[in-house]
Write a structure and sequence with these properties.
CATH class of the largest domain: Alpha Beta
Distance between the termini: 60 Å
Number of helices: 12
Mean pLDDT: 91
Low-confidence stretches: 1-25
Shape: globular
Largest sheet: 7 strands, mixed
Order of helices and strands: HEHEHEHEEHEHEHEEHHHHH
Number of strands: 9
Length: about 280
């Protein structure tokens, strides 16, 4: 028995060391932020946060994944933060699955989702889509399956009795198809949201949504794993103060869209907005 006990001792020591290392990482300068690649506003805000925290001596790791995977990872205490939670409509059902997550702050107030068309398209409401279904080829060009916007569009097709099919692929594919249609002055309807750089680069409009399938104004929020604020009270304070208005969000999105190096562009943007950044960092 003594020999067996001694054989287990090294294993127990290794396990204790591994657990201690995990705990030290959670309470160290390493910060993990989940990010949905392709969501322009999430990519932009996450890189700005990384640029700021890097400068403060933290080591920020960006983890690219879907919303569902990020929320689940935070719930398991494996990911620290996610800056792309849209409420009270888009992500409400997804968030309800993880009641232990913590709301840190609101990053942006004037979010909107819905169906979007080029300005030259002569209709203004979702209710008019069926009258022009042939011009739109019976298609709504969507983004990734599983996204809150995708689910909302499935509901819109049913509730408005639209003779349309939602075509899902990726955000990049949707934007490419939109740009190509505009070049040819063709009619196209896509799933879209603000803030997004495409509204600054193309002349677009939302279709009115009388049934409020897509809700109304939304806020973009930062959520964290349950114990993050306890482990990093100074960062919880920072994220509670981080906030973009329409002007600086639009400026950031356009610069990031034109950039080939997101990290470098985010660092430049942070340097150019030193007073704003300092107001977020102020712990008073």
């Amino acid at each position: 028995m003594k020999h067996i006990k001694y054989l287990f001792l090294p294993v127990l020591m290794l396990l204790f060391t591994a657990l201690s290392s995990c705990e030290n990482i959670k309470n160290s300068k390493y910060i993990t932020i989940g990010m949905v690649d392709g969501w322009a506003e999430d990519v932009a805000m996450t890189h700005v946060a990384k640029a700021i925290l890097d400068k403060q001596g933290y080591y920020v790791i960006i983890q690219k994944a879907s919303t569902d995977m990020i929320l689940a990872s935070m719930n398991n205490e494996d990911t620290d933060l996610f800056m792309g939670v849209w409420l009270p409509y888009t992500h409400a059902k997804k968030l309800a699955k993880f009641p232990g997550l913590t709301h840190l702050g609101t990053n942006y107030d004037n979010g909107r989702i819905g169906l979007v068309v080029p300005e030259y398209v002569t209709i203004n409401s979702i209710e008019e889509l069926n009258k022009h279904k042939d011009q739109f080829n019976h298609r709504i060009i969507g983004i990734e399956k599983g996204a809150g916007l995708t689910t909302g569009t499935d509901k819109a097709i049913v509730d408005y009795k639209l003779d349309y099919q939602q075509i899902n692929s990726s955000t990049i594919a949707m934007i490419t198809e939109l740009q190509n249609a505009i070049q040819r002055k063709e009619w196209i309807v896509v799933t879209g949201w603000q803030p997004h750089w495409m509204f600054g680069k193309m002349k677009l409009k939302f279709l009115d949504d009388p049934k409020k399938i897509y809700g109304e104004a939304e806020q973009i929020k930062t959520y964290s794993r349950k114990s993050f604020a306890k482990d990093h009270p100074e960062l919880a304070k920072f994220f509670s103060k981080l906030h973009f208005d329409d002007e600086n969000m639009s400026d950031l999105l356009m610069k990031m869209e034109q950039s080939k190096n997101k990290e470098a562009t985010a660092k430049e943007w942070v340097e150019d907005h030193a007073e704003l950044i300092q107001s977020w960092l102020d712990q008073n």
